[in-house]
Design goal:
Layout lengths: L7 E6 L9 H8 L3 E4 L1 H5 L10 E4 L4 H11 L5 E6 L7 H9 L4 E4 L4 H9 L7 E4 L17 E5 L5 H11 L6 E6 L7 E6 L11 E6 L29 H11 L6 E5 L5 H8 L5 E6 L2 H13 L6 E4 L14 E4 L8 H8 L5 E6 L2 H14 L2 E5 L2 E6 L2 E6 L3 E7 L1
Parallel strand pairs: 1-4, 1-5, 2-3, 2-4, 6-7, 11-12, 11-14, 12-13, 14-15
Antiparallel strand pairs: 7-10, 8-9, 8-10, 15-19, 16-19, 17-18
Length: about 400
C-alpha cells in the first residue's frame, strides 16, 4: 500500500512580513511544527512566532532535495513560507507537481504582480508576466513586439540592468522601463527611465515593468507562424516561410504539447512551434553538430532558449525522447525506421507532417499515405523577381507535404 504524500500549508508573505499576514495565515504559522522557506522569509517571522516550530531554510539546490526533505517531516504540521502568491512563478506550483493538489493548502498574500499592476494602473489583461528567476533571460525576446506591456519577475538587483541591456541589443532601447522595488514595504520605491538610459543597480526585491518600443529601423517578430527567412541563421537547410506556415497550421500547436522537429536543419519549425505559446515544448533532432549548434543559437535569439537540441539521427536519437504530441520531419524521412518510430510514438490525436523535396522521399511519403491515409499535397511557391527591365516569376523547388492525424 502506497503511503499518503506529506501534507503542507503554503503561506504567502509580502515584503511587509508578519504585519501584513491575514488572520488565517498567522494562525497557520503559529500552529506549525516545522517552518520551511528561504532565509529572508524565515527572518520576517518574529522570534516569538511558533516558538516550538523547527525552522529550516531551503537546501541548495532545492529541487533535488525537496522530496526527501518533505518526507522527513511527514505527519507533522509543515508550513512553507513563500513570496506573495505561491502560484505566481512560486513554490506552490512545485509542491503541487510533487505532492498533488490535495496535499497542498495555499494561503496567498497579494502578489508582487498585483501590487505592480496597481501602482502602474495596468489592467491584468493588458500585460504579460515573464519570470526570469532561474531562467534564461532570452525568454524575453519572444515578447518584444511594439506596444507590448511586460512585468518581469527579477532574480535579483542585477536583473533590471540585464533587461535593459537585452532591450538595447534587441533594437528596443527606447522602451520605457519602470523598476518597482520592495513592493508593499515601507521602503517601496519606483524608478522610471528608458532602457538605453538605465544605470542601476536596484534593490534585490524588484519587478521590472516594460512598455516595448521598437527603435526606428529595428525589426520585431510577432509570435504568429511564418517568420521571415532572414530571422534564422542557416546554411540553406531551412523550411522556407510559406511552407513553414503551412506545416505549422497542420501541426496545430497547443499549450503544453511537445513537438519533435526531426532533421531540424536551422530549427525553424520547432522554434516557431515554441514561440506560439510559452508552454509549448520542442525537441529538435539534428545529426550535424554544426547545425545543431545553429538551432540553439536561433532558439535563444528568437526568445525560446528552452528548445532542447539533440544531436543524432532518427530513429536512434528518438528512442530516449519523451512521447510527442506532434512530429515534423523536414529531413531524414528515407532513413529506415525513422517514420515508423515517429508514428508508433504518437498517441491518439497526434499529428505527423513530413516534407519531401526528392523523388526518393516522395516515394516513402506516398507509401505511408496509402498505408494510413492523411492529406497529401504538392506545394509550389513562386516569387516575383526582376527579369531584365521587367518582373517575372521565379519558382522555388516544389515540396510534397504529407499531414496525418493518428
Amino acid at each position: 500500500m502506497t503511503a499518503a504524500p506529506p501534507r503542507v500549508t503554503v503561506v504567502g508573505v509580502g515584503a511587509d512580513g508578519w504585519a501584513g499576514l491575514a488572520p488565517a495565515s498567522r494562525a497557520a504559522v503559529e500552529g506549525a511544527e516545522v517552518l520551511l522557506g528561504g532565509k529572508r522569509h524565515l527572518d520576517l517571522m518574529p522570534a516569538g512566532t511558533a516558538p516550538a516550530a523547527l525552522r529550516e531554510p531551503w537546501p541548495s539546490p532545492l529541487l533535488p532535495s525537496l522530496p526527501a526533505l518533505l518526507e522527513r517531516y511527514a505527519g507533522r504540521r509543515v508550513v512553507v513560507l513563500a513570496s506573495g502568491d505561491p502560484f505566481v512563478s512560486g513554490i506552490g506550483t512545485t509542491l503541487v507537481d510533487l505532492l498533488g493538489a490535495e496535499a497542498v493548502t495555499a494561503l496567498p498574500a497579494v502578489s508582487s504582480v498585483a501590487l505592480a499592476r496597481a501602482r502602474l494602473g495596468w489592467a491584468a489583461e493588458s500585460c504579460d508576466v515573464v519570470s526570469v528567476v532561474g531562467r534564461d533571460l532570452d525568454v524575453l525576446r519572444r515578447h518584444l513586439t511594439p506596444g507590448r506591456r511586460l512585468l518581469v519577475l527579477s532574480a535579483d538587483g542585477g536583473t533590471p540592468a540585464e533587461v535593459a541591456a537585452l532591450l538595447v541589443a534587441s533594437g528596443c532601447g527606447g522602451s520605457r522601463l519602470e523598476v518597482l522595488s520592495d513592493l508593499g514595504a515601507r521602503t517601496e520605491a519606483r524608478t522610471g527611465t528608458t532602457a538605453d538610459a538605465w544605470t542601476g543597480p536596484a534593490p534585490s526585491l524588484n519587478v521590472v515593468a516594460v512598455e516595448v518600443r521598437v527603435d526606428p529601423g529595428a525589426r520585431a517578430f510577432a509570435a504568429v507562424p511564418g517568420l521571415p527567412d532572414e530571422a534564422f541563421e542557416h546554411d540553406g537547410q531551412l523550411t522556407k516561410r510559406d511552407l513553414r506556415a503551412l506545416a505549422l497550421s497542420r501541426l496545430a500547436p497547443a499549450p503544453g504539447q511537445l513537438l519533435w522537429d526531426v532533421g531540424a536543419g536551422a530549427g525553424s519549425v520547432g522554434i516557431e512551434w515554441a514561440r506560439t505559446d510559452p508552454r509549448c515544448r520542442t525537441v529538435a533532432v539534428e545529426r550535424s553538430p554544426e547545425r545543431a549548434a545553429r538551432v540553439a543559437r536561433n532558439a535563444a535569439r528568437l526568445g525560446v532558449p528552452s528548445v532542447r537540441v539533440v544531436t543524432g539521427s532518427a530513429p536512434a536519437a528518438l528512442a530516449a525522447l519523451p512521447d510527442p504530441d506532434a512530429v515534423f520531419v523536414g529531413g531524414g524521412a528515407t532513413e529506415p525506421g525513422a517514420l515508423e518510430a515517429a508514428w508508433q510514438r504518437l498517441g491518439p490525436g497526434g499529428r505527423l507532417v513530413v516534407h519531401a523535396v526528392t523523388l526518393e522521399t516522395e516515394d516513402v511519403v506516398r507509401a505511408w499515405h496509402r498505408r494510413v491515409g492523411g492529406e497529401l499535397a504538392r506545394v509550389a511557391v513562386e516569387h516575383a523577381e526582376p527579369l531584365g527591365s521587367f518582373t517575372g516569376w521565379r519558382p522555388a523547388r516544389p515540396v510534397v507535404q504529407w499531414a496525418v492525424v493518428r
